Amino acid sequence: MTVATLGIQKEIKLADRCRFGVGGPADFFVEVTAAEDIKAAIMYALDHNLDYFIYGEGSNLFFDDKGFRGLVIRISGGKFEVSSGGVVRVDAGYSLPKLVRDLAEKGWGGLEFLGNIPGSIGGAVVGNAGCYGKAIKDVLIDAQVYSVKQNKIEEWKPKDFEFDYRHSKIKYDPDKIILSVNLKAVKRSPSEIVREIEQELNERKSKHPHTAKCAGSFFKNPKEMAAWKAITDAGMADANVGGAAISPKHANFLVNSGGATSEDILKLARMIQKEVSSKLGIQLEPEVRYVGEFSVRGI
Predict the structure, then answer these.
(1) φ, ψ dihedrals at 250, nearest 5°
(2) Domains of the chain as residue ranges with CATH
(3) Residue 217: active-site member
(4) I need a surface site. Which of 157, 160, 179, 275 has the fewest CB within 10 A?
């Protein structure tokens, strides 16, 4: 397929395409939905010797100020369907909060805990999104995964992902791309589902900077204590570097308070890690991904 056929654009500012609002221009950028278009975009990158990076809604990452030297592929949109037995087949680009609410309208629940987590279905599975002791792995039946090197679609069961806390084995593997998933839902009263979702949203807004430019919880919770408490106990709750700052609402949320650069975020994150390690002996591991000029890089 050609650039025109796929709709590939050039020099697209990535700050406008992630929730953190940080990132320079991508050499090439394309937004796709269908499985065949996802595969075609990847093949285009390979045929033209381009590095590529694939993501969904961009709610758990930030891009480098220099942008990306290659093709950035954003998977968005799609559709879902529910069987009479409660099996939900949904495309990877579908919005997670939208899915939970759309299912609620049809009287299907069981996914309420995911209702206010921003992101796409594919991204949620890749990062094993969740809250309150639950994660998407708990409702995952299987997923259709495209293996780039083998050029074939595979069916993965939950065990194949080797899920861990906010992690799966394909989180940093550009060879494995989720195309769609099957989730399990249960019959519930639509009004009860909506009430639970809205109640949790109000609680979330009271504790989290829900509308801020950020990527959600920045660090994973270590086994010793919650990440926000470790940051606070280390005296870092009001730290900032340039336009990057710790939210006054929640110490584990690093936010773009205005004009933040990727370097600001990296410096602040590393400063927090250093202080928490030095003062508490706790190693904070990032939950958020940093996308460098050519690939995902460590923070």
Answers:
(1) -155, 120
(2) 3-75 (3.30.43.10), 80-207 (3.30.465.10), 227-297 (3.90.78.10)
(3) yes
(4) 157
